[in-house]
Structure formats: structure tokens, C-alpha cells
Write a structure and sequence with these properties.
The protein is of the alpha/beta class. The chain is built from twelve helices and eight strands. It has helices at residues 12-20, 22-31, 42-51, 56-76, 83-103, 117-120, 127-145, 148-154, 204-222, 248-266, 288-292, 297-300; strands at residues 9-10, 161-162, 168-172, 175-179, 183-186, 192-198, 229-235, 240-245. β5 (183-186) and β6 form a beta hairpin. α4 (56-76) packs across α5 (83-103), α4 packs parallel to α7 and α9 (204-222) crosses α10.
């Protein structure tokens, strides 16, 4: 079997973790490599397991995205889903993820089973908090079903739909940039509407860069020219929308951001061409609040002091 190679790539999520903590970035993109093998080095295997952890908030977000994508895909094939059915599907996904994590199956197969930070680190979470996560998911779905964008999508001919929540990529100055636009449609004039669902609170600058990257992707993959694309950030939790004009200025902003981020990341590598890294070149953050909610906390803080839950 051909040996897998850890090649350098870029994404908004990769930039986010690099900005938060260089050490966590190293673990997530280098230290875990090879840990998928059951007989790998114990430390590498541990890093791999921790890399795949979610937390209650990211689990809730993934459930919302999965259910929304399913609702739209079913419409594509002539099957309409009502809100109550969507809520029930989401609730089952949440419960199954919780059960899998609590049973600890993720430690044997991190890719197959859900693992939650709260269970890995034995965080004392009251039942009311898990119920709040359920209600959070329901609120997001309620807002999606009541939204004008849902009406717009369902009223658009299927042939004008572009990929739904599919991981894709484009090339930028020799580097693969990964994107996962939640939805996109093209109108008869050839203009594109690129949509991203958000299940948390707004993070204006980071969210803007993400939708701009989707615009760059639309340009490279679908030939959508600047000023012929609009990006919409739909914050389902608080039912607000942020509209981003994907013009030349926005594209240049995105390109400058990506180039600067890539330069910083590669500047810490021991061998850029081989994409090789050494842990000591990636320092830990000094922000204890970031450490408190970090998947890799036990690697840096084996004896973590008792604090409030993340």
C-alpha cells in the first residue's frame, strides 16, 4: 500500500487554530500523523484520538448542518421534510452522539464513533445543560424553517443548485485551499448566492473571511466573476443575516489573508517542501482559557487544576 503523505494545505479552520495556539496547531496537523493505526506509537495514537474529539457545542452545530443538508437533499428528490420530523431527526442524532461518547467507543475507533471533550475530561455537566443543547439545536432548525432563504432555495430550479455542504478545494499559489460551502445557487443571469449556516454567535471578521474564501472558490470552480456573487452568513441561533459583497476588493482581501497565514504557518516548518515540523517550534499559548477548552490539554497540562467547565 502506498504510504500516505502529509501535504500542506490551508483552510479557515486551520488558520483559526493556528491563531489560537501554535502547539494545538502542531498536534492537529502534524503530531497525530499515523495515529489512525491501532499499533501506532501510544503518544501519537493519543493525539489522534484527541484530535477527533468534539464538544457539546460543535456536536450541536454538526447535527444542525447534517439535518439541514438532509432536508434540502430530500427536496431535491421530491421528498419534503416538515419541521417536526427535522427536530426528531436532530434529537436522535444528538442522543446517539451522546451515547457513543459516554460509552467510550471513540477511544477504539475515533473516526467511527462520536467522542466528546466533556466525557474525555470528565467535566461535570448537569442534565439541564444537555437539555439546553437540545433546545439550541431546535431553535436553529425553527429559524431555518421559517427563513426566507429556505423559501428561495426551494423555489429555485434544482439544476441551478450548486453543491450542498460538500468538502471541496481550489488552488491558490501552489497551495490547496479546502472549503465546505453549505449551499449555493445560481440564478438565470449566472449570478451566484453562496450561503453559510452558522449555529453559534457571530464572529464578524473570521466569518467574513470564510465567506470570501467561498467566493474565491466559486470563481475558481464555477467561473463566477466578482460582483456576480453574494455571500450570506445566516446565524440560525439568533436569526440574523450578514451579507458580504464578493467583489474585487473582497477577493483581494481574502487573497492577502490567505497568503499571510500560509507564510506564517510555513515559517515554523523545519522543511517547507517536505511539510515537516518539530513540536518545539510551535509554542503553547499563554491564554489559560484557551487551554481549558483544548482537546490536547492533558498533553500540555497532565495535572490540570480544577476550574469551571468550558
Amino acid at each position: 500500500m502506498k504510504k500516505l503523505k502529509n501535504t500542506f494545505s490551508w483552510s479557515v479552520s486551520r488558520h483559526r487554530i493556528f491563531s489560537e495556539c501554535r502547539r494545538a496547531y502542531y498536534f492537529r496537523h502534524y503530531g497525530f500523523w499515523g495515529g489512525w493505526a491501532a499499533d501506532s506509537d501510544p503518544r501519537i495514537r493519543e493525539i489522534y484520538i484527541l484530535k477527533n474529539l468534539n464538544n457539546r457545542f460543535t456536536l450541536a452545530g454538526k447535527v444542525v448542518h447534517e439535518v439541514v443538508a438532509d432536508v434540502l437533499n430530500r427536496h431535491r428528490y421530491g421528498r419534503e421534510v416538515e419541521l417536526e420530523e427535522a427536530r426528531n431527526s436532530a434529537y436522535e442524532l444528538l442522543k446517539e452522539g451522546f451515547r457513543q461518547s459516554r460509552a467510550g467507543a471513540y477511544r477504539k475507533n475515533p473516526k467511527e464513533y462520536v467522542g466528546l471533550f466533556e466525557h474525555e475530561y470528565a467535566v461535570d455537566i448537569p442534565d439541564t445543560e444537555w437539555e439546553r443543547m437540545r433546545d439550541r439545536v431546535f431553535k436553529c432548525l425553527d429559524h431555518f424553517f421559517a427563513s426566507k432563504i429556505r423559501e428561495t432555495i426551494l423555489g429555485t430550479k434544482i439544476e441551478n443548485w450548486l453543491p450542498i455542504d460538500a468538502l471541496d478545494s481550489f488552488e491558490f499559489q501552489g497551495v490547496t485551499v479546502f472549503v465546505a460551502p453549505d449551499f449555493a445557487v445560481r440564478n438565470p443571469q449566472g449570478n451566484a448566492l453562496v450561503i453559510d449556516w452558522k449555529t453559534g454567535w457571530p464572529s464578524k471578521s473570521a466569518d467574513r473571511i470564510q465567506i470570501v474564501c467561498y467566493g474565491l472558490f466559486a470563481h475558481e470552480k464555477w467561473g463566477v466573476e466578482p460582483l456576480r456573487a453574494i455571500g450570506e452568513l445566516h446565524y440560525l441561533l439568533n436569526d440574523t443575516i450578514d451579507i458580504v459583497t464578493l467583489d474585487e476588493a473582497a477577493f483581494e482581501e481574502g487573497k492577502t489573508h490567505i497568503r499571510s497565514s500560509i507564510d506564517q504557518m510555513q515559517g515554523l516548518l523545519t522543511d517547507v517542501e517536505a511539510n515537516e515540523a518539530e513540536m518545539d517550534r510551535f509554542p503553547q499559548t499563554d491564554d489559560v482559557r484557551t487551554c481549558e477548552r483544548c482537546n490536547y490539554r492533558k498533553l500540555c497540562w497532565p495535572e490540570w487544576p480544577e476550574r469551571s467547565s468550558p
